[in-house]
Structures are given as C-alpha cells and as structure tokens.
Specification:
The protein has 614 residues and is an alpha/beta fold. It has three domains: 3-252, Aminohydrolase, N-terminal nucleophile (Ntn) domain (Glutamine Phosphoribosylpyrophosphate, subunit 1, domain 1); 259-451, Glucose-6-phosphate isomerase like protein, domain 1 (Rossmann fold); 455-597, 3-Layer(aba) Sandwich (Rossmann fold). It has an eight-stranded antiparallel beta sheet with strand order 3-2-4-1-10-9-11-15, with helices on one face. A hairpin with a 2-residue loop joins β16 and β17. α7 packs antiparallel against α14 and α9 (307-324) runs antiparallel to α16 (482-496). 56% of the residues are buried. The structure holds 6-O-phosphono-alpha-D-glucopyranose.
C-alpha cells in the first residue's frame, strides 16, 4: 500500500525514481509524484493523479539533472485520488518534501495549531502536516534527522516516512514507525537507494538493509547512519540478496497475472525440491527451530492470513487436521487480533502472507508473540517483516508476484502447509507411513498435473466467453475445495468486478439458492473425494432452478456430463492435492472473463497488492 522510492548518488535521479515507481506501482496506483533537488529552485516537485504514466507525461522534458530525490505511488487513505493529494507533500515555504506510507492517526490535532494561525493545507491528506512540522523543527535549529525524530515523537500511528530538505541536497532521512510498510535500503559504493520493497532495488544492487520498526536512517550517497527513535546510534549489517529481478518482467504474456499463473508448474517444482524426499518418503523441514518435545506438546494450530492467503490457510487447516491430527482453526488476521483470542505456548500459529507486510497480519502475529505462541510463517518476499517476527519461515520460492491478484503464491503457500502438516504428523508420530508415502509421492506429480491443468486454457477461455456478461456468480465447493471456491469468487471479483460469492455447497440451500435463475451461473467444484455425491446433489438442485452450472471434475468423472452445462475435467492427481489443480482453473476462468470484459487485470481498481493500513 503506497510505494516509496528514493535515490542519492552520482547519476540522474529522475529516471531511477520513475523506474522504481513503476516497479512499486502494484502497491498503489491512484496517483504518483517525485521531488528532486534542483540547483535553481531548491526542490523540483511534480505530481499527477492516475498511474505513473500520467506523471511521466506531465514530466515530459522538464526533469532537472538532479542526482538525488524521492518518489511515491499512492493508494488513497485520506482524501481522493487527486493531484493535490498526491505525494510528495511540501511545507508552505517549499523547504521540506515528505513521502509517507501508513496512517498518521492524530493528523487532525497536529494540524489544529496551524489552522488556528490561519495556515491552510493544500491537500486532504494526513501526510502534509508532517512536512510543516519538520520545517518548523528545522527552523528551531534541529538538523534533518533530529527534526524527523522529533516529528515522529508527536505523531501517532504506524507508518514509514522519507524526508528531504532543499537546504541539504543529497541527504535523505527515512524512518519506519510500527509495522505499516517496510523500508529497505540499497547500497552501492557511491550511491544509495530507498524503497518500500526489494523488487524496486534489485535491478541496482543486491546489497540491502531492512529498517526495523523504530529505526531511522540518515542517508547520503557515501554513507548511511542509523539510529533509534531517540537518536541512539545503531549498527546494521548489509545483507546480500539472491532474489531474481529478471522474473519481474512480463515476457511473452499479455499480463503479469497470466504469466504468474503459467509459472506455477516450475514454481511448484521449486517448492517441493529438497523438501519432499522419496527415499524413504518424508518431508524434510530440518531447519525448523522447534524441538520434538515442543512439537509433541502442541495442542492446537491456528492459521491466519488475509485475502487469498487466508484461503490458503483454510485449505491448510484440512491438511493439519488430517495428517498431523492436531485441532486446527483458521482466522482472518484482522478478526483474530481484536477478539482477544485464547492462546498459549502450546498453540502453534501459522501465518500466511505473500508480501510479509500485511499490517493486520503483523498485528495478529504480535498478539501471538505476546502470548508466547511458537510461530511459523509462510512468505514469498525474502526478509519481509513477518519472517522477522516468526520463529521459523517457509519461503514460497515463487519469485516476485507483480499482478495485484495473487495466483502462484497461493499455490506455493498451500504446498508449504501441506509439507508442515506431514512434518508435524511425523514428528508427533500421528502420521501413518502409508499415508505419508501416498502424499509425498502425490506431491512429486503435482508440477506435471499443474502443467496439464494449464492445457485446459483454450476450454476455459471458451467457457469464459460464454459467461463473461453475467453480473453475478456463485462458486461452490465442499471440504478442501470450499476455500478454492472462495478463491474462485475472490479472483473473479478482483479482476473482473463481477459480483461473486463463494460458499460451502451445503450452505447453498440456506440462502444463496434464492438468487439462482437462468442468469446466475454457478461454478461447482465436484472433485472426486468422499463428498462427490453430495456435490452432485447440489448441482441437480441448481439445475432444477435453471441455473447454468460449470462443473469442475476429476479426471474420468463422467457423472456430470449432461447434467452440468459445462464440464471442465482436471488432470489426474491424488484427492488431497486436487484443490491445487482446481485452483488453476479458478485463476484462468477469472483471468479470461476479465479479459473479455476489458478490465485492468494487473492493477484492478481500488486494490493494492500490499496492504499496510488497517
Ligand atoms: C491484498 C492483495 C491480495 C492478498 C492480500 C493479503 O488484498 O490484493 O491479493 O491476498 O492483500 O496479502 P499478503 O501479502 O498478506 O498475502
């Protein structure tokens, strides 16, 4: 949510900032802006509502040859998507420029003294007042880093902040307060970079430092000095990252979403490589920091996440209960935090997050940490904040996910929890060895099965064309296919703006069926498992009410031919992993319906990939 970029060095900063904004645009894309040190006028600032392209066309030919500056791409929290609300924000004298991610909760009371003096604010944002305050602190004689720390002391909320002043060309101060939005610094010998996440830095450097909450970085081209919020010096090491920036280009695909769907066979292979072993069949998670005694003492597993990651957790719950035989529950992280959950040191908390930055999830993890829960996190972004809070991390190994709607990382996170469930079952002695063998062998087939599911693309595109004009959709599933139905509905909503509901099929008769008529299609996941017959009955009930049905079935299942309007037959895979293969169909269906409707698939309206506000 909101992308921040900064550069100070020897090269022209403008193009570096613009390119960085493009890489960060998935975090927010309602407006963008940059501020550069300009020899003539002090600070050159340009902002534009809309995407980075709007900013670029407004900049046309005007970029000064500055070698330092800051930029921002916004996801609106306070005030609409307008030029005036776009960052950077300046103080009235134009001395200080600020970009910010997160929320300043007490911004109104911070603004009050200015308003009382008749000073006007140019925007409706919670950010602008920070520039005024920093300018006042500079006027009192503080230096830039001191002024930023002083203003942080007055501000409530969780946020990250980057500030420059025209008085000190080339100096940038960045701070992170609380868990909203990361800041990562990139280091080359005579240039430094600042960004909200790694993806924007990696084309320039692999040498990075993550700011932790409560840290301030005082940055020039030559050096970075770190302090805490009181100004006490901190030592921070440079980490060398191996993340692959090349993966962040679209290649032959029209959209990142389609590219990322197609990356799933290879990504799945990376997920299982070295973790699932055939001889003897087992899952190797040896780097887990939990002792056998501790694992045997777990009485409960709580899985938490938001959005797509919560759906992964919902599938994972089935695995934990079935393979490890530990009571497991799933919670939306934002709900979990605020209902004062009952937790103890025998409750294993498994959090799932592609970005590792989702603020609601981080709050939930803090709650679990305070209760002494052992924590395992599943994450895609190296070094992200969730990985710093949890005791152990399973990385998704999927490379950067750029499309706002998550696809490949859901696949990876489900596999991660499948592995954890098998590992827990073995450690606790609750996993039957034939079941272990069956699951480990099935996992070996998964990459190929996902590859085969992608061959269904032409059929799915055809089905998409048939139903693309529907205004409402129902998605039904049972058991581990229910979260996949939820995800099918979520993906469709996100990328095509069609209203869609995901329901457990048994619930259908308790309300949703009232919506069914010939205009409301249902996607029914009728996988071959112990619930298949019940699912078939549900489909009959839909057909009896003239509802069009797209049935997604297991290989060789002909029982719904002639009953459902369209039947999509999945490749062969063991039942517990069939939700993963069905997931590919959900993703492609949403993609092709959105394509038919001409939607902005990679950057749907109102959404952001990384949600760093509550
Ligand atoms: C946002 C994204 C979703 C994502 C959710 C959780 O809403 O648009 O695609 O599922 O956040 O994000 P996380 O990074 O925690 O998985």
């Amino acid at each position: 949510m909101c992308g921040i970029i900064g550069y100070t060095g020897q090269r022209p900063a403008g193009p570096i900032l613009i390119e960085g904004l493009r890489r960060l645009e998935y975090r927010g894309y309602d407006s963008a802006g940059i501020a550069l040190f300009d020899d003539r006028d002090g600070l050159f600032v340009q902002r534009a509502a809309g995407k980075v392209d709007q900013l670029v066309s407004r900049l046309e030919g005007t970029l000064p040859p500055a070698s330092a500056g800051i930029g921002h791409t916004r996801w609106a929290t306070h005030g609409g998507a307008t030029d005036a609300n776009a960052h950077p924000h300046l103080d009235p004298s134009g001395r200080v420029a600020v970009v910010h991610n997160g929320i300043i909760e007490n911004f109104e009371s911070l603004q009050r003294p200015y308003r009382q003096r008749g000073i006007r604010f140019m925007s409706e944002t919670d950010t602008e007042v920070l520039a005024y305050l920093v300018a006042d602190e500079l006027a009192r004689g503080l230096d830039l880093a001191e002024a930023v720390r002083a203003v942080i002391g007055m501000s409530e909320g969780a946020y990250s902040l980057v500030v420059i002043t025209k008085d000190e060309p080339g100096r940038i101060v960045a701070a992170r307060v609380g868990n909203a939005g990361g800041i990562v610094l990139g280091h080359n010998e005579d240039e430094k970079f600042i960004a909200s996440d790694l993806a924007a830095l990696l084309p320039h450097t692999r040498n990075v430092t993550f700011l932790e909450p409560g840290e301030v970085a005082d940055i020039t081209a030559e050096a970075v000095r770190y302090t805490d919020l009181e100004g006490m010096p901190l030592m921070k090491a440079i980490e060398v990252q191996s993340y692959d920036p090349v993966a962040a280009v679209k290649g032959r695909f029209k959209h990142f979403m389609l590219k990322e769907i197609h990356e799933q066979p290879v990504g799945t292979l990376d997920m299982i490589r070295g973790r699932y072993r055939l001889d003897p069949p087992s899952v190797d998670l040896d780097d887990m920091p939990f002792s056998a005694e501790q694992v045997r003492a777990f009485t409960r597993v709580v899985l938490i996440g938001m959005g797509t990651s919560m759906h992964s957790a919902m599938v994972g719950r089935h695995y934990i209960e079935r393979f490890a035989r530990i009571p497991a529950e799933v919670d939306n992280a934002a709900e979990f935090t605020y209902r004062r959950p009952v937790l103890d040191e025998h409750t294993l908390v498994i959090s799932v997050s592609q970005s590792g930055e989702t603020v609601d999830l981080l709050a939930a993890m803090e709650e679990a940490r305070a209760a002494g829960c052992p924590q395992l996190t599943v994450c895609n972004v190296p070094g992200a904040q969730t990985t710093r809070v949890a005791d152990a991390t399973i990385y998704m190994r999927m490379g950067p996910e750029i499309a706002v709607a998550s696809t490949k990382t859901m696949m990876a996170s489900i596999i991660a929890i499948h592995a954890v469930a098998l590992w827990l079952g073995r450690m606790r002695g609750t996993l039957d060895s034939s079941l272990e063998r069956e699951q480990v062998e099935a996992a070996q087939h998964l990459p190929a099965a996902i590859g085969e599911a992608l061959l269904l693309e032409p059929q799915i595109a055809q089905v998409a064309r048939k139903y693309a004009q529907a205004e409402h959709f129902l998605f039904l599933g049972r058991g581990w296919a229910y979260p996949i139905a939820m995800e099918g509905a979520l993906k469709l909503k996100e990328v095509s703006y069609i209203h869609a509901e995901g329901y457990p099929a048994g619930e259908m008769k308790h309300g949703p069926i009232a919506l069914i008529d010939e205009h409301m299609p249902t996607v029914a996941l009728a996988l071959r498992d112990e619930l298949h017959d019940k699912m078939r009955s549900n489909i009959e009930q839909l057909k009896a009410r003239r509802g069009p049905v797209v049935a997604v079935v297991s290989q060789g299942d002909e029982t719904l031919n002639g009953v459902a309007d369209d039947v999509i037959e999945l490749p062969e895979i063991e039942a517990a992993l069939s939700p993963l293969v069905a997931l590919v169909v959900m993703q492609l269906l949403a993609y092709y319906i959105a394509l038919e409707r001409g939607a902005d698939i990679d950057q749907p309206r109102n959404l952001a990939k990384t949600v760093t506000v509550e």
